[in-house]
Predict the 3D structure of the following.
Amino acid sequence: MIKSLRHLEAVIGYKLKDIDAVLDNLHKYYNSFSRTKKSGKKRDIDSSENILRDLHNRINDRIFSQISLPYHVTGSVKYRSAVLNAKYHSGKKYHFQTDLVGYFQFVSNRLVYSTLVSFGFSADVASYITKITTYKGHVPQGVPTSPFLCNVVGLRILDGEILEFCKSRSIIYTRYIDDLTFSSDVDIKDFIPDILQIINNKNFLYSHRKTIYKAGDIVVTGVLTTCNGLKMPERLIEKMSNEVDIIKRKGYENFANQIQRIHKLGTLNAIVDRQRELVFPGRLKDRKKKNASSAVLDLVSLENKKLEIEREINLY
């Protein structure tokens, strides 16, 4: 772990005086805006730019990516994904999910600093990294270092007690940033109040709307989890097809449509990427021929729709 400021300079390739110049005018290196969520509420985004963005990328790539995280932490971790997160719960009969509210705002500069120190960074290095990676008193959404910091703060404060509780009760637990999923072969309904109490005791808030208990098939981080395996929910494939039609119908005559088009393409990319991982998690020949053929046809259809939009974008 990094123990001195000189070592920090060497790793990220910036002199402290250059970092200080950025920190003295931090607001100039953020693009702040809001997005409307499905619920109608606003989500504040603070996206770093220019030198600060480069600092964030270097810290993420050269420092944070070298720190191993346990298997149950699946969000924004290299070689892990929403599909892997769902896979841990595949084949289980009972599922419980909840979502931490305002998680990025909860991860304060104080928590970031103390967590970095607990991971072995020296106090002065932890202080510098905290100043670089937090904004307005917490980790900002729209910055590449924030998911890692959310992961390690959650790991330090919340996960230990939850894992201990689940282990003795044969419950599988994973966390995809702020999405918590629990599953078991036995009914876990009676344990839900205890789990929620642990969350409350750690001063986290959870979403009542997104707190779900269900026996049988359930969508986990966008992937349909069944007793027989994983598959893409039909509603997402249908949604993608509908969005293709909307984009074609609206055209690209004005800036508003252009912004909408970019947003929709991002949705399509996410859906296609998840479908690809579901189809090819390992060797294709290990699947039954009929199911494999059907899955490949689904993938080809999705890819064709995606390419069709990309071709139209190139004409814009």
